[in-house]
Amino acid sequence: MEMRRWKADTLELTRDYIRQTAWDIKFILHVRRCYWCRMEVQLSVERYLGRGLPWFFDIMNEIAYDDEEEYILERYKDMPRVRDYHITSYWEEVKNYRCGIKTSHKGTEDFIKARLDWAEKVSRADIMLATSYYRQLNSWDLNSDPPMNSDLPFL
Ligand SMILES: [Zn+2]
Predict the structure, then answer these.
(1) Among candidates 18, 109, 124, 115, which has minimal Cα distance to 59?
(2) Ion ligand 1 residue ranges (Cβ < 5 Å)
(3) How far does residue 36's CA lie from ligand 1's centre (Å)?
(4) In whole angstroms, what is the distance from residue 96 CA to residue 86 CA?
(5) Total domains in the fold of the chain
(6) How far is CA 101 from CA 45, 87, 122, in A?
(7) CA proximity to 15, closest of 120, 144, 116, 138
(8) Structural domain boundaries enclosing 81
(9) What is the pLDDT of residue 137?
């Protein structure tokens, strides 16, 4: 691809990534203080493995594929792991209900809190990284090798 075109496309990708990550941080700050959204996240994690939620709550791949888990581990070494929390399932709740037992959601709540804290830290670091990459790429004169950064997921 022509370099000028590549530069323009990559600048746009970087801008989109910064915008998306800023939205993730807004979401994190909101969910932390909004009871109703926390309930929605909890239900979604317990019943639909977080599908439809931001990436740090989408636990489908972590549960289904070991490869994906390895990839995630490498990029995000201190991510709170699904297997370290007791995440209540819908069926567990149904079973408990039939036996007249009230289901505790503490494991899910702890998991959500840990992921929110961790994702905020990672997202803030990613925004700094992407912003600095954007500046670097923007001032690139097209004559030397293009600036790269393998820590950014879209590059
Ligand atoms: Zn809310």
Answers:
(1) 115
(2) 34, 37
(3) 5
(4) 15
(5) 1
(6) 21, 17, 38
(7) 138
(8) 3-138
(9) 96
Q: Is residue 106 part of a domain?
A: yes
**Which segments in the chain show pLDDT lower than 70?**
1, 65-75
110: Cβ contacts below 8 Å, ≥ 6 apart: 85
**In this structure, how many other beta carbons lie within 10 angstroms of the beta carbon of residue 50?**
24
pTM exceeds 0.90 = no
The pLDDT value recorded for residue 134 is 97
pLDDT of amino acid 65: 66
The alpha carbon of 15 and the centre of ligand 1 are apart by a number of angstroms equal to 26
Please give the Cα distance from 120 to 80 (Å, whole number).
Answer: 13
Is residue 117 one of the residues assigned to a domain? Answer: yes
Encoding tokens for residue 128? Answer: 């700094």
Residue 152's pLDDT is 86
